[in-house]
UniProtKB/TrEMBL annotation:
Residues 432-643 form the Peptidase S9 prolyl oligopeptidase catalytic domain. SUPFAM superfamilies: alpha/beta-Hydrolases (SSF53474), DPP6 N-terminal domain-like (SSF82171). It comes from the Bacteria. This is Acyl-peptide hydrolase. This enzyme catalyzes the hydrolysis of the N-terminal peptide bond of an N-acetylated peptide to generate an N-acetylated amino acid and a peptide with a free N-terminus. It preferentially cleaves off Ac-Ala, Ac-Met and Ac-Ser. Also, involved in the degradation of oxidized and glycated proteins. InterPro entries: 6-blade_b-propeller_TolB-like, AB_hydrolase_fold, Pept_S9_AS, Peptidase_S9_cat, WD40. It comes from Fodinisporobacter ferrooxydans. Keywords: Acetylation, Hydrolase, Protease, Serine protease. Pfam families: PD40, Peptidase_S9.
Length: 645
């Protein structure tokens, strides 16, 4: 058996986005691998035949092929591929043959949907005719996005394209973005999400419908918060979508909604679940290739969707009269994507011991159908985490996990690393976490928890950090460390801490408020909430919402009082700062400020700058950079590990 190391990353495989063929006999899905020589990811569409059990590659997989969708008669398969540079729409016959490129948009395709008559509707940004100079003239607050870059002047619109390659024909216009098209069963209307608000600070999308005969656009549902992933019911009477009514605020549950295409009546079907739809469980061992929309049963009475529950993600179903049922059994799973066909669910499932593999479920029987990671994992010392619960000082129950080194013995004492997630509304859960396995395989116990503010424990819990960054959630984390440090096998003289983004904020906050840690690694972190308002791609609304409305002009003192930079002169813990130079979410200036402050104050510190990487370095950065990042984390802790009890 071999330990899991930083280099193990190159051998991981990620499967997801299963899609049933219309006859239900085969399933296509996306498999992503890492080409170490070329330092890049390769995503390939594979096809699993349910009769023969044969699993074959369907596309080349030299670039990134993703979002496969069968045409309604099953004769074509469309997908988005970067094989010509940017993500463009391709189509091929399901019998095989060469894929044909259907779109040539300069900035690529965002989303698409099949029409009944073998046409497709595509959401794509119009080519910018005014792009004469490389100078950027900015007139809006939303002009760049982490991982995307600068948006340019032209908005995203809907276009019709034909499988024979003719088109694209533009079907919506105006100075606003339009995405997520869904086509009515008769092919006459397209519903889509659009941001048609004048106010640039808080823009909430709504649902619109365009009539393809007349070109007229109707408002179908007036959004009051988030609206995404609309899908027509097979009888055309409803559109299901994901949304909430709380403006631009990620600290609320996004729910499954329906709107009647006749009366316009809209309601949430999943409110009683008190859980957010979709997957809110983070990991560094996933390569996102799917868009998981609600899926209607053929009778138009039931909808399938995923939701996050206490560190797990399950498939649920809900009827139009709001009867909710958990569909995937078991309690240790993170379902990242799924498809449904006549009583059968195909889903991609991560567990603490493996990146996602595909499963089929029929009549409560579960069959694993892919084993891409199995040979590798049979030869590795994988540690399986134990679920734990802690009581915070005010009595609130906090969930967590302890990942022990392989070969753990309770007669020994082990150093401990506290890992802190970001968001702050993201969560940890029952998924495979490469970084944590590397630490456990290096001899550390890893403690990870979901303090208040995390998703998956109800809306009251997720709102527990609003207006209180560094407050009660900090206490939850300290209370968890206190409880674990009392265990006989934990070496309380060797406690370490790390986290990214909000987790990096909390790491900075911790070293400025306690001296219990031997060393810290702060990643893509925040130290100055005041400057972040103006420098982050989302700072002007996100920071204000997260601090419960606090803004620069009225509440400067409060904002600075919650900024780690104010307390930098209390830090004694050696801190390594890891940051990506193209991070638009928590910009590089945050790391620069923290480094300058600590250095001036004589704290042991080191700044590690990753060029050509953004906020998502740990999840989809260049593979070699990801390994180097992990080496920096383990190396820093090892450097300060000493004086074992
Ligand atoms: C656009 S939704 C709200 C912000 C977003 N929340 C998602 O988690 C976000 O980017 N927050 C960052 C400050 C953050 O902490 N991100 C975490 C979780 O994704 C990270 O690990 O990068």
């Amino acid at each position: 058996m071999r330990p899991i190391t930083t280099q193990t990353l190159f051998s991981l495989q990620f499967s997801g986005d299963p899609q049933f063929s219309p006859d239900g006999q085969s399933i296509v899905y996306v498999k992503t691998t890492i080409n170490q020589e070329e330092n890049k990811y390769q995503s390939q569409i594979c096809k699993y035949d349910r009769k023969t059990g044969r699993d074959i590659p369907f596309t080349q997989g030299l670039a990134q092929d993703k979002l496969p969708k069968f045409s309604q008669d099953g004769s074509y398969l469309a997908f988005v591929s970067t094989r010509s540079g940017t993500p463009q729409l391709f189509v091929m016959l399901t019998d095989g043959g060469e894929p044909k490129q259907l779109t040539f948009f300069k900035k690529g395709v965002k989303s698409y949907s099949w029409m009944p008559n073998n046409q497709l509707v595509v959401a794509a940004r119009k080519d910018d005719a005014n792009e004469k100079s490389d100078v950027r003239v900015v007139n809006t607050l939303r002009y760049r996005g982490n991982g995307y870059g600068f948006y340019g002047d032209e908005p995203i619109h809907l276009w019709l394209v034909q499988v024979d390659g003719s088109g694209p024909q533009q079907i919506t216009d105006g100075n606003f973005d339009e995405t997520d098209p869904t086509v009515s069963p008769d092919g006459k209307k397209i519903a889509f999400v659009s941001w048609r608000e004048e106010n640039q600070v808080e823009v909430t999308p709504s649902l619109y419908t365009v009539d393809l005969d007349t070109g007229l656009i109707d408002l179908t549902y007036q959004g009051k918060g988030s609206v995404s992933h609309p899908v027509y019911s097979p009888n055309g009477k409803w559109i299901a979508f994901f949304g909430h009514e709380h403006g631009e605020d990620s600290g609320y549950n996004t729910e499954l909604w329906v709107v009647s295409t006749g009366s316009g009546e809209a309601r949430s079907l999943s409110r009683s679940l008190d859980r957010p739809v979709g997957n809110q469980v983070g990991t560094d061992a996933r390569y996102e290739t799917a868009e998981v929309s609600p899926i209607w049963d053929m009778d138009s009475q039931k909808i399938y969707f995923t939701a996050t529950h206490e560190g797990d993600v399950y498939v649920y179903s809900v009827t139009l009269d709001e009867k909710i049922q958990k569909e995937t059994p078991g309690d240790t799973q993170v379902v990242t994507s799924f498809s449904y066909h006549s009583g059968v669910i195909a889903y991609a499932k991560e567990t603490p011991a493996s990146p996602a593999e595909l499963y089929l479920q029929q009549n409560k029987e579960i069959q694993q159908i892919t084993y891409h990671n199995t040979p590798l994992f049979k030869s590795l010392t994988v540690s399986v985490p134990e679920r734990t619960k802690f009581q915070a000082r005010d009595g609130l129950e906090i969930n967590g996990w302890l990942l022990k080194p392989p070969g753990f013995s309770s007669d020994q004492r082990y150093p401990l690393v506290l890992e802190i997630h970001g968001g702050p509304h993201s969560s940890y859960g029952n998924t495979f976490l490469h970084e944590f396995q590397v630490l456990a395989n290096s001899g550390y116990i890893v403690l990870y928890t979901n303090p208040r503010g995390s998703h998956g424990y109800g809306e009251a819990f997720v709102r527990g950090s609003i207006g209180d960054w560094g407050g009660k959630d900090y206490e939850d984390l300290i209370d968890a460390v206190d409880a674990v440090a009392r265990l006989p096998y934990v070496d309380r003289n060797n406690l370490f801490v790390t986290g990214g983004s909000y987790g990096g904020y909390m790491t900075n906050w911790m070293v400025a408020h306690t001296h219990i840690f031997k060393a810290a690694v702060t990643q893509r972190s925040i130290c100055n909430l005041h400057s972040m308002i103006g420098t982050s791609d989302i700072g002007f609304w996100f920071n204000v919402k997260e601090l419960d409305g606090a803004d620069i002009w009225e509440d400067e003192e409060f904002i600075l009082s919650r900024s780690p930079i104010r307390y930098a002169n209390r830090v004694q813990t050696p801190v390594k700062i890891i940051h990506s130079e193209e991070d638009f979410r928590c910009p590089m200036e945050q790391a620069e400020q923290w480094f300058t402050a600590l250095k001036r104050l004589g704290v042991e510190t080191e700044l590690v700058r990753f060029p050509n990487e953004n906020h998502d370095l740990s999840r989809n950065g260049q593979p070699e950079h990801r390994v180097e990042r992990l080496d920096h984390i383990v190396g820093w802790f090892n450097q300060y590990l000493g004086n074992k009890e």
